[in-house]
């Protein structure tokens, strides 16, 4: 995964790590703010493996390279299941992370988070936008406010942001 380029100058490995980080950040935020529960182990594991297709999709000699966006989720899921063994949530996350290019929508909330994080990271990588540090700072700040770990000088968490 470190040998293949994903978007721009970003490797598949770097992309998957970014997707895992953003998925986890969103899950932590939603847990703190809305009391939603997530299977964070499956979320992170599948986010790290969501592009485990093991080929260079930019190589025009690779069969099907021109429909990679439609076909790689299944390939990645089969490879990951073969090499690591996946649970049902992980299979759903990996096989549906390209929705709406995949016909079936995500079944689990973890799948939705990885799908959204994947789109966000792909946009940032493609257009060379580095907003990750700012977003991570704001999400962590908001979580700290929600936990009462910070005071916002007489403001509520929503007003402070």
Percent helix among the residues? 55-70%
The tally of domains stands at 2
Strand content: under 5%
Strand order of the largest sheet: 1-2
Output the CATH class name of the largest domain: Mainly Alpha
Could you tell me the number of beta strands?
Answer: 2
DSSP summary: helix tally:
7
Concise structural overview:
It is built from seven helices and two strands, in the order ββααααααα.
List the helices and strands and how they pair.
Layout (H helix, E strand, L loop, with lengths): L4 E3 L2 E2 H23 L5 H10 L18 H17 L3 H9 L12 H18 L5 H15 L10 H4 L1
Antiparallel strand pairs: 1-2
Question: Your description of this structure?
Answer:
- The structure is a single chain.
- This protein is mainly alpha-helical and 161 residues long.
- The chain folds into two domains: 5-129, Orthogonal Bundle (Hypothetical protein af1432); 130-161.
- Helices cover 60% and strands 3% of the residues.
- The chain is built from seven helices and two strands.
- A two-stranded antiparallel ribbon has the order 1-2.
- Strand 1 and strand 2 form a beta hairpin.
- Helix 2 (40-49) packs parallel to helix 5, helix 3 runs antiparallel to helix 4 (88-96) and helix 4 runs parallel beside helix 5 (109-126).
- The radius of gyration is 17 Å and the shape is globular.
- The N and C termini lie far apart (37 Å).
- The mean pLDDT is 84.
């Amino acid at each position: 995964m470190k040998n293949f380029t994903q978007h721009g100058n970003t490797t598949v490995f770097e992309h998957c790590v970014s997707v895992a980080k953003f998925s986890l950040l969103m899950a932590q935020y939603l847990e703190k703010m809305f009391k939603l529960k997530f299977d964070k182990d499956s979320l992170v594991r599948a986010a790290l493996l969501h592009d485990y297709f093991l080929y260079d999709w930019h190589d025009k000699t690779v069969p099907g390279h021109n429909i990679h966006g439609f076909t790689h989720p299944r390939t990645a899921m089969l490879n990951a299941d073969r090499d690591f063994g996946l649970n049902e949530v992980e299979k759903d996350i990996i096989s549906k992370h390209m929705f709406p290019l995949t016909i079936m929508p995500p079944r689990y909330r973890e799948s939705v988070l990885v799908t959204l994080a994947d789109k966000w990271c792909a946009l940032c990588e493609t257009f060379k936008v580095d907003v990750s540090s700012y977003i991570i700072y704001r999400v962590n700040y908001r979580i700290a406010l929600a936990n009462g770990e910070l005071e916002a000088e007489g403001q509520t968490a929503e007003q402070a942001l």
